Amino acid sequence: MAILIVKPLDILKQAIGKNVIVVLKGKREYRGVLDGYDPHMNLVLKNAEELVSGESVGRTATIIVRGDNVIYISP
Questions:
Q1: What percent of the chain has pLDDT over 70?
Q2: Is the Cβ–Cβ distance between 35 and 46 less than 8 Å?
Q3: 69: helix, strand or coil
Q4: Where residue 54 falls among pLDDT bands split at 50, 70, 90?
Q5: With CB atoms counted within 10 Å of each terminal CB, which end of the chain scores lower, N or C?
Q6: How far apart are CA 43 and CA 31, in angstroms?
Q7: If we measure between CA atoms, which residue out of 13, 12, 14 comes closest to residue 22?
Q8: Residue 37 to residue 2: CA distance in whole angstroms
Q9: Is the separation of the CB atoms in 48 and 31 below 8 Å?
Q10: Tell me, what's the pLDDT at 58?
């Protein structure tokens, strides 16, 4: 029986160019297309919508999210 080990950065690599949901500390959330990332899980999102407590507060063409604020990323 083979054990498959999947690393978080491998999952992010597969999500490049796809829509993701990024939940941050402080009840903040971004939804957009994952354009890039680094080993610290700093993220670059394109066409991102910002939500605070579930309410849309704006859109931006490109945003960089600092990895230490990320609670989770849903591809």
A1: 100
A2: yes
A3: helix
A4: confident
A5: N
A6: 12
A7: 12
A8: 29
A9: yes
A10: 95
HSE, side-chain direction, 13 A CA sphere, residue 56: 7
Question: Rounded to 5 degrees, what angle do the CA atoms 15, 20, 25 make?
Answer: 125
Tokens at 70, concatenated: 């990320």
Residue with tokens 């297309």: 33
Q: What would the two tokens of residue 59 be?
A: 């859109």
Q: Check if the beta carbon of residue 10 is closer than 8 Å to that of residue 67.
A: no
Does domain 10-74 fall into CATH 1.20.1260.10?
Answer: no
**H/E/C letters for each residue in 26-55?**
CCEEEEEEEEEECCCCCEEEEEEEEEECCE
What's the rounded Cα separation, in Å, for the pair 68 and 27?
A: 15
Contact of 43 with 67, CB cutoff 8 Å: yes
Find the mean pLDDT for residues 52-75: 93
